[in-house]
C-alpha cells in the first residue's frame, strides 16, 4: 500500500489531504457503483445516455477487485481506479473521485503514480473517456493522445514516458 508520506512527497501540495491506495475488495463494489453513478451522471445526461440502473450495473458487471485500487484521502473513501492488463499494455478504467475532492490535485497525483509504474514497465496505457468530459483535460495534461473517437467515447493512449506530468519525463526534458 502507498503511504501518506510517499503521497505528499510525490505530488500533493501542502494543505492537500494525504492519500493512499489500497487493494479493492469485493465488498467495495456498491460504494464504487454509487460513486460512478454520481460522477458520470451529468456527462451521461448531456449525451442522452443516463440510466440510473444501467450506470451502476455496468460497474458491477465489470468490477475486478484484482486490478482495482480504492483511493483513500485522510483515511476516508475518496474514489477508485482500475489499471487492467491487456494484450497491448494496460487499460485505465473506473477512475472516479468523490466530487468534493475533484479539482484539487488528487486525481493528478494518483494518475502520476500509476503512469510512473507503467513507464517503469515500458507499458502503454489506454483509456476511453466520454465526449465532452472534463476528465479529458486531465488525461491530456498527463500525456494521453486521442487514438480514435465515436459518437460517445474518445479513446486515448499514453506511450511510456510520454510526459505531461510524470516527474521523470520532465527531468529528462529539462523542465
Entry summary:
The chain is α+β, with helices and mostly antiparallel strands and 175 residues long. The protein is 37% helix and 27% strand. Helix 2 crosses helix 3.
Radius of gyration: 16 Å
> How many domain units?
1
Characterize the biggest β-sheet: 7 strands, mixed
Helical coverage, percent range? 25-40%
CATH superfamily: Gcn5-related N-acetyltransferase (GNAT)
In the CATH hierarchy, the third-tier topology is known as: Aminopeptidase
Describe the 3D structure.
With 175 residues, this protein is an alpha+beta fold. The chain has a single domain, classed as Gcn5-related N-acetyltransferase (GNAT) (Aminopeptidase, 3-Layer(aba) Sandwich). Helix content is 37%, strand content 27%. It is built from 6 helices and 7 strands; from the N terminus they run H-E-H-H-E-E-E-H-E-H-E-E-H. Helix 4 links the parallel strand 4 (89-97) and strand 5. Helix 2 packs across helix 3 (52-62). The protein is globular and about 40 Å long. The chain starts with a helix and ends with a helix. Mean pLDDT is 87; it is low at 2-12 and 165-175.
Amino acid at each position: 500500500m502507498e503511504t501518506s508520506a510517499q503521497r505528499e512527497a510525490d505530488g500533493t501540495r501542502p494543505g492537500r489531504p494525504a492519500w493512499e491506495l489500497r487493494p479493492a475488495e469485493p465488498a467495495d463494489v456498491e460504494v464504487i457503483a454509487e460513486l460512478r453513478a454520481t460522477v458520470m451522471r451529468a456527462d451521461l445526461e448531456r449525451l442522452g445516455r443516463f440510466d440510473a440502473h444501467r450506470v451502476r450495473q455496468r460497474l458491477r458487471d465489470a468490477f475486478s477487485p484484482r486490478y482495482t485500487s480504492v483511493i483513500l484521502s485522510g483515511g476516508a473513501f475518496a474514489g477508485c481506479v482500475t489499471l487492467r492488463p491487456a494484450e497491448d499494455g494496460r487499460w485505465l478504467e473506473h477512475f472516479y473521485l468523490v466530487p468534493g475532492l475533484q479539482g484539487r490535485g488528487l486525481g493528478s497525483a494518483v494518475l502520476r503514480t500509476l503512469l510512473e509504474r507503467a513507464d517503469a514497465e515500458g507499458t502503454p496505457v489506454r483509456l476511453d473517456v466520454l465526449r465532452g468530459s472534463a476528465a479529458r483535460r486531465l488525461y491530456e495534461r498527463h500525456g494521453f493522445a486521442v487514438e480514435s473517437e465515436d459518437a460517445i467515447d474518445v479513446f486515448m493512449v499514453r506511450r511510456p514516458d510520454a510526459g505531461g506530468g510524470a516527474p521523470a519525463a520532465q527531468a529528462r526534458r529539462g523542465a
